[in-house]
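re: ur question from earlier - yeah i can do the single chain one, its not a big deal. heres the input i used so u can compare w yours
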Amino acid sequence: MTVCSLIIIVSFPFLDISSNDIINRIMVFSYIIFFSLVVFVAIGGLFSKRFEFVSKIARRVQKSLLEKLKNTRFKFSQYLKQESGDEHEIKYNFRKFIPSIPVSLILSIIIQLIASYAIFIIIKSLNYDLPYYVPLFISPVMTFIFLLPISFGSLGIREGSFIFFYGIFGMDQEAALLLSFLTLSGALLNVLIGAVVLQVSSVRKIIE
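and the output i got, formated as tokens:
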């Protein structure tokens, strides 16, 4: 969320667009999220010892989820029981977490840049001359929208969002809808590859 907010804030000045009420609200929302998360991390790093209750809550949630997984009839339930013992309990410590934040932010920014460039290439293939900053701005906005628990897998919301936001920059509804289908196909392909890798690695561990 921090990276998405930062990209929206940075890319907005480069957009050649007149005043739009919805875009202005998105900018305000992005500023609030970005600075709120920055302040939260700063406070957590300075006063981590005073936030032990957060760690306790996180451990309870983790334990509860693991117990529910153990009680399910999931295909690899026996494997989960072996891998989720007390010795594997996650330790939550703000001071150890904070040094890894810059690396995580840089990698997240790189992912967003590459994903936006992929959309930019698709837009070019549809014979639309939109600058790179347009998908760079819209992609993180879409991320926030897709997080809303409105529909299953953001289906329906995705198509309407593409038509609305890319329509602001002059793209026709048909082209925006096609762009939505193409990006969804790419996302499903990535998920499918990851699912196959996880499935194969899980089976190998069980066999071993």
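Residues 163 and 176 are 5 Å apart (CA to CA). not sure if urs matches, ping me
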